[in-house]
Design a protein that fits this description.
It is a single chain. With 369 residues, the protein is an alpha/beta fold. The chain folds into 2 domains: 180 residues, Rossmann fold; 177 residues, 3-Layer(aba) Sandwich (Rossmann fold). The protein is 44% helix and 14% strand. The protein has 15 helices and 13 strands. It has a 7-stranded parallel sheet, with helices on both faces. Strands 10-9-8-11-12-13 form a 6-stranded parallel sheet, sandwiched between helices. The model has no long low-confidence stretch (mean pLDDT 94).
């Protein structure tokens, strides 16, 4: 039984979905503390039972908790795997009191600093740290840096297992025609290099850093188009629009909102940028590279580990350094070696982050303890 905070369009949710789709060794049951989101219907369509508790925003509802207890008593799962802090806490405690012997938590964030996430979430993480010696059998993290960040606030170091995210490479491929079709589908006529970033509008993603870096480039004489996609990346976002106007980027930025055709989008751009303040294991970097799109990333979470020597890594929270990294990528885009770099980017994902490797590691973790 998997217990997760929600089933919206997020990284943990996507990994859970892929895990359930590709693991045929176990019967999977999903419990969402909130609602269906994006992945609830997709999981049900695949024949996987999904229960939604529809807890309130602070995840406290006596009726919801009673329902979770009943589900655990009724289903009697051999293993409870939880995902994200509120699910680790609530799912872990309820599983413990109902007699489940194998409880594995899942943590993903690489930056727990105030200002980069909600204080309420940080408090829940710290409560989990206090309980990490009592509740979980093991703690699975997708990121080496995330492990260090959690150990620093008190999580039991000896309980961690590092399992990087895995990807279905049949759904992610180098497809220039697909990229052209995507550009046509969103009604754009672009000339020149295309930069992109796929991420929700969130403090952790540090879009202010990206826009300042792009402004730097524009004033240096570089011409480019930039596609920004993700929840909140629309013209209705007044804060974002204010930044774009302030940095004189109105003619260079195209806001796409949430996008489900990730392969098409990644093939439509030449360079993917991740400007984040904090990450665990950023899926979009691996997804871009699997489509042969080299990346410029800030050195947070496991971004540099994913990129290896196929892209550019710069310090976080530094528009000047980010501009230098993007400038290097734009210059390389014009070189003869760009095609080889694209192939190398995809090969790195295929060699290190294939979906079957991830599934095998989860199966080993569930089997051992």
């Amino acid at each position: 039984m998997h217990v997760i905070t929600g089933l919206g369009n997020g990284g943990a949710e996507a990994v859970l979905y892929r895990l359930c789709m590709f693991d045929h060794s176990h019967l999977h049951i999903i419990v969402s503390l909130s609602g269906d989101g994006k992945y609830g219907p997709l999981l049900r369509e695949a024949g996987i039972p999904v229960y939604c508790l529809n807890l309130s925003k602070n995840f406290m509802s006596i009726f919801g908790l009673i329902r979770l207890i009943r589900l655990l008593v009724l289903e009697r799962p051999d293993i409870v795997q939880t995902w994200l802090y509120h699910a680790d806490l609530i799912g872990g405690v309820v599983a413990k009191i109902t007699g489940v012997n194998k409880i594995l938590w899942g943590v993903r964030h690489g930056n727990l600093s105030p200002g980069t996430m909600k204080l309420s979430t940080i408090r829940v993480a710290k409560v989990c740290a206090l309980l990490s010696n009592l509740i979980p059998t093991k703690i699975i993290s997708c990121s080496k840096r995330a492990i260090n960040a959690h150990v620093d606030i008190g999580y039991k170091k000896e309980k961690f297992i590092d399992i990087p995210n895995g990807y279905d490479l049949k759904d992610l491929s180098i497809d220039s025609h697909g990229g052209d079709l995507f550009i046509d589908s969103v009604g754009l006529a672009l000339k020149g290099p295309v930069i992109g970033m796929v991420a929700r509008f969130d403090t952790q993603k540090d879009y202010r850093n990206l826009l300042k870096a792009l402004s730097n480039l524009k004033h240096s004489g570089y011409k480019f188009n930039c596609l920004l996609a993700g929840r909140g990346m629309t013209t209705d976002n007044q804060v974002l629009m204010g930044w774009i106007v302030e940095d004189s980027l109105e003619d260079s930025i195209f806001l796409l909102g949430e996008c489900r055709n990730i392969c098409g989008l990644m093939n439509a751009i030449d360079i993917h940028v991740l400007s984040s303040l904090g990450e665990g294991f950023p899926n979009v970097v691996a997804e871009a590279m699997a489509c042969g799109t080299p990346c410029v990333v800030t050195d947070v979470g496991d971004s540099s580990f994913i990129v290896g020597d196929t892209g550019w890594v710069v310090p976080p929270n530094s528009p000047k350094e980010l501009a230098i990294g993007i400038r290097g990528a734009l210059d390389a885009l014009q070189s003869e070696g760009w095609a080889d770099r694209r192939i190398a980017a995809r090969a790195r994902i295929a060699d290190n982050f294939d979906i079957n490797k991830m599934v095998a590691k989860y199966n080993q973790a569930w089997k051992e303890f």
